[in-house]
Design goal:
The complex is a heterodimer of chains A (289) and B (275).
Chain A: H1 9-51, H2 61-84, H3 90-97, H4 103-136, H5 144-162, H6 164-174, H7 176-199, H8 204-230, H9 236-243, H10 248-286
Chain B: E1 2-11, E2 14-24, E3 28-34, H1 40-48, E4 55-60, H2 70-73, E5 76-79, H3 90-98, H4 106-115, H5 129-142, E6 147-151, H6 159-172, E7 178-182, E8 196-200, E9 203-208, H7 210-216, E10 217-220, E11 231-235, E12 238-244, H8 255-264, H9 266-272
Helix pairs in contact in B: 4-5, 5-6, 8-9
Classes of the chains: A mainly alpha (289), B alpha/beta (275).
Chain lengths: 289, 275
């Protein structure tokens, strides 16, 4: 029987399950700890408050969102190295390379696990645990999803006290368009950390962060003239006109600027994601032990 | 069949293998011998596709191992000298990864673990080095591959385990497979390996079957030192001497003595065996 050397659905299905099992073995304990970190922080805050005689402190939605945000950053930084960092190890990496699965299948499975399955499991886990906290704690009535809306509202309110332009800007910043662009930022970060996990032999996360900072500096140097030319339409006169009550024209300029910035961000992230994905594929294809 | 043609490999500016040409045929368990640093492990890793040849070629059933195509990978297994202590039970490891080799036999793995007196329910990262090695040997043999590359399989095994290994090789190796075992522990594998390949610095010094070796060299196990020996070694019961076999007499090949003879008379041995 002829074996397909590029992609075979049955083999890929088996490999995906086996790959996820290995991720569970390598990263399971850390994953559970990171997912539970928000709950632990909530319990610690409450316990410390009780111990100091102030009664039980129920961390509100905003604070719990911050806990989860920090957990998510830790997850993004550590998960790729914990799940796939072994590939640079001579012993474990050789076993993995010799597994009768194609490079394409190994690559797709790696992307599915790190970019969709594990982050979704984390998000599902933290949201479920948060609902549980809200259901059990009589002092709480808002989950973190509600908290995010409150945060957006709070920022808008604070900004509105200064000027209408700020209110307009912050509304845009908090709106769905910007939220969606942050998803591709997260995807880019995961791919960058995965690339770092496959190239660096030791201190993978630290070296990736340092390399990422260097890449960002280089991008900023090249992108600055472009960004400046985009924002050239906004000048002091426009801002003064806004402050004098002539808002309509300025709204359009600001809206256009934000849209351009989003397009720029999406293009940049797409280039980085494609670059990182190509780098990951070729690393898998050509790594030697 | 594996065809190696003018194979060359170096680490930076240091050449390790140069102009290696040989053919590895089915139904044989090759013993790959050589001093430290002559490139035994490098040759094994090149054969299984973990490294890319810098010169020449390796062709396994018409395919290039470095392409790492599943069709070839499922026909071969590489057992490294140093094994990874996976965070899984041995049986889980076998179930999780064995399914990728078409002919993997879980019952055979369990039988081999029984033969090696190692508990398949034990976590691999809690095993001793010897137990871990036996688990990987069991897995390698249970894969039932046509090409099996083993790097120092008896290193770290205790005395009973070495006997168990020989028994496992005799019982569980496929008849049509090509097995290449790199080793320094020639006494452990004396009755297992045939033919013998001796690597010298960058090159093949000898590649011959035990039968060919015994046709061309005579191994004397007497008690007197005789003149004209290519190699002599005193042993507790007498001595081992190696002579060119001019009379056609049969003798039992002592691989350690063969290796030392080849090491001391490189040109002669190379010429004798036409490598």
């Amino acid at each position: 029987m002829e074996i397909n050397n590029i992609f075979n659905c049955k083999r890929f299905g088996k490999y995906l399950v086996s790959d996820l099992t290995r991720c569970g073995a390598n990263f399971g304990v850390s994953f559970i700890t990171i997912t539970l970190a928000g709950v632990l922080a909530y319990l610690v805050a409450g316990t410390v408050s009780m111990a100091t005689g102030s009664g039980w402190y129920s961390s509100n939605a905003l604070i719990r969102t911050i806990y989860i945000g920090i957990s998510a950053v830790i997850l993004i930084c550590t998960m790729p190295a914990k799940c796939y960092g072994f590939i640079t190890d001579k012993r474990a990496g050789a076993n993995w390379l010799m597994l009768p699965v194609s490079t394409t299948e190994k690559f797709i499975s790696m992307l599915l696990n790190t970019m969709i399955i594990i982050p979704s499991a984390f998000l599902g886990g933290v949201l479920l645990l948060d609902c549980l906290i809200v259901a059990l704690d009589p002092n709480l009535d808002t989950t973190i999803i509600g908290g995010m809306k409150e945060l957006s509202w709070l920022i808008s309110e604070m900004a509105a006290q200064e000027s209408e332009v700020n209110a307009f800007l912050t509304e845009n910043i908090a709106n769905d368009k910007i939220f969606l662009t942050s998803i591709d930022d997260i995807a880019t970060w995961i791919l960058m950390f995965l690339l770092g996990a496959l190239y660096f032999k030791k201190n993978k996360a630290t070296k990736t962060v340092l390399s990422w900072i260097a890449v960002c500096i280089i991008i900023s140097i090249f992108a600055s003239p472009f960004m400046l030319s985009m924002s050239g339409n906004i000048n002091m006169e426009t801002i003064n006109a806004v402050n004098n009550g002539d808002l309509e024209a300025s709204y359009m300029i600001v809206d256009e600027l934000i849209n351009k910035a989003i397009v720029f961000d999406v293009i940049l992230d797409t280039i980085l994601m494609v670059g990182a994905a190509v780098g990951i594929f070729f690393r898998i294809k050509t790594i030697k032990h | 069949m594996i065809k190696i043609n003018d194979l060359g490999f170096s680490y930076g500016d240091t050449p390790v293998l140069k102009n290696i040409t040989m053919t590895l045929e089915e139904g044989r368990i090759y013993g790959l011998l050589g001093e430290n640093g002559v490139g035994k492990t490098t040759l094994l890793t090149l054969l299984c596709g973990l490294k890319k040849p810098m010169a020449g070629s390796i062709v396994t059933d018409g395919r290039n191992p470095f392409d790492r195509e599943p069709s070839l990978l499922s026909e071969q297994y590489y057992l490294s000298d140093d094994n990874a202590p996976v965070h899984m039970k041995a049986i889980e490891y076998a179930r999780n990864y064995g399914k990728f080799w078409e002919r993997f036999d879980i019952q055979k793995f369990i039988d081999l673990m029984g033969l090696f007196e190692t508990d398949p329910e034990q976590m691999m990262n809690k095993m001793s080095a010897g137990q871990l090695k036996k688990t990987y040997i069991g897995f390698a043999l249970a894969c039932n591959t046509r090409y099996l590359f083993m790097d120092e399989p008896t290193n770290g095994l205790d005395i009973p385990s070495k006997a168990q290994f020989r028994k496992a090789m005799a019982l569980y190796t496929r008849e049509d497979s090509v097995v290449l075992i790199s080793t320094h522990q020639v006494r452990d594998l004396e009755n297992v390996i045939d033919p013998i390949i001796i690597l010298d610095k960058r090159n093949v010094l000898l590649n011959a079957s035990i039968e060919e070796i015994s046709e061309k060299l005579y191994f004397d196990y007497g008690s007197e030192i005789k003149e004209g020996a290519l190699y002599s070694e005193l042993t507790p019961g007498g001595c081992i001497q190696v002579f060119p076999n001019s009379t056609g007499k049969e003798s039992k090949v002592n691989i350690e003595a063969l290796f030392n003879t080849a090491h001391q008379h490189k040109g002669l041995i190379k010429g004798m065996f036409n490598n």
